[in-house]
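Suppose you are handed only these lines of text.
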Amino acid sequence: MKKIKVAIFGTGFMGRVHIESLRRLGSVEVVGVAGSTAERARRFADDVSIDWSTGDYRELIEDPEIDAVHICSPNALHYEMTMRSLERGKHVMCEKPLASTVEEANDMIELAKSKGLANCTLYNIRSYPQLQNLRRVREEGVLGDIRIVQGTYSQDWLFYETDWNWRIDSGSSRTFADIGTHWCDLAEHVTGLKITSLCADLQTFMKTRKKPKGSVETFKGKDVVPIDFDEVNIDTEDFGSMIFKMGDVARGSMTTSQVSVGRKNRLFLEVYGTKASAVWDGERPEELWIGHRNESSELLIKDSTIFPVAAQSYSDLPGGHSEGYDATFKQTFRRFYRTVEDRTSPVEYPTFEDGLRQLFLVDAVLESSRQQAWVSI
Ligand SMILES: NC(=O)c1ccc[n+]([C@@H]2O[C@H](COP(=O)([O-])OP(=O)(O)OC[C@H]3O[C@@H](n4cnc5c(N)ncnc54)[C@H](O)[C@@H]3O)[C@@H](O)[C@H]2O)c1
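From them, the structure of the protein bound to nicotinamide-adenine-dinucleotide can be written out as follows.
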C-alpha cells in the first residue's frame, strides 16, 4: 500500500513528538524535516533517522510527492508556512495557537477551503481516552445540565527570571495563548457549550527577564547556564485568570500559569451538572472522577470496554495499560490522515476553524484584562 508522505517543519519538542507519533500509525512516512538552519536540521534528522533535511522548508513543499506538512515551528511562523504549503496543495497539520491574529487565521481557513485541503489545529488534549469518555457520558445525560465549569492549566518551567523561551517575546499573549487556549478548547469540546462572555485579568510578575544570547528550545531552559544574557522588558503574562459565562445558565472560572512552582503540566478540569459531576487531572490522565450527592462518588480507571461506543476508539490498549500525552497525537493524526486518504470521511479532529475560535478568545482576554471589564465573544 502506498504510504502518505509527510514533511515536518521544526526540530524541537513538537517536531520529535510528531515524528514518533506518525511512525506509530504505519500508513504515513516522514520523508523530510526542515529546521531553522541546515546544520540543526541535519543533526535532528540524523537523530530520528530521516534522510532529507534542510534549513529552508520551502524546498520540501516544492516536492509533489509530499502530501502533507506538520508545522511544529514557533507561532510567528505558522501563517507563512501554512499559506505557502496550502498554495502548493499540501494538507496541513498546524500546531496551536493557529496564527498570530484572527485575520491570519481567516486567510488560512479561506485558502484551505478553496484548495479543498485537510487542515487541523493541534488541540490534541481532546484525544485523551478519559476526556472522550467524559464528553460522551455528558452527551448521554449522566451529568444532567451543566452548571459550573472550572479548572486550571499550570506549569512552572518559566518560574525563574533566567528561564527563557521564544514564547516570552512572541505575540501579545503568552500563557493564555500557549496553554490557556488548550484548556478553553477542551472545556468547550467536552461540555458542548461555548464561552459567550468573559472577564479576565493577566499578570506579568517578572517585568524583566534575562534573555540568553542564542535560542532555547521548549523545556530546555533548565540546561542553560545564563552567563551571557540581555536584561529585557517583558509584557507577556506569566499568569491569567478569568470568570466566564457559557450561555444563560452555565458559569465558570479558570486560571493559567507558567510560574506555579511544582506544577509541571497540570491541566485540571471540573464539570458540575444538575445530576452529577466529572473531574479530570492531566497529571493522572487514566482516571475520571464522577461525583454524586446521594451515593458514593466513583473513580473510574480507563477501560474502553465500558466507555460509550463513540469514545472507545480513542484507546488502543486494554484497561490499566496507560496511554499518555504522546498517544493523544497518534489518535489525532490517525483521524486526520483518514480524511487525507478519503476526503469524504468525517472530520473528528480540531480544524483551523477551532484554531480561529481560540484566537477570538485570546483577543477577548487581552481586551478584558486591559479594560478590566466583561467582554462578549
Ligand atoms: N500541542 C501541544 O501540546 C504543544 C506542546 C508544545 C508546543 N506546541 C506548539 O508547537 C510549536 C512548536 O513548539 P515547541 O515547543 O516544539 O518549540 P521548540 O522551540 O522546542 O521547537 C521549535 C523548533 O522550530 C525551529 N525553527 C525555528 N525557525 C524555523 C524555521 N524557519 N524553519 C524550520 N524550523 C524552525 C527551531 O529551531 C526549533 O527546533 C508551537 O506553536 C507551540 O505552541 C504544542
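What can we learn from it? The chain has two domains: 4-117, 127-323+357-371. Residues 9-14, 34-36, 40, 57, 72-75, 77, 95-96, 122, 124, 166, 178, 217-218 surround nicotinamide-adenine-dinucleotide (CB under 6 Å).
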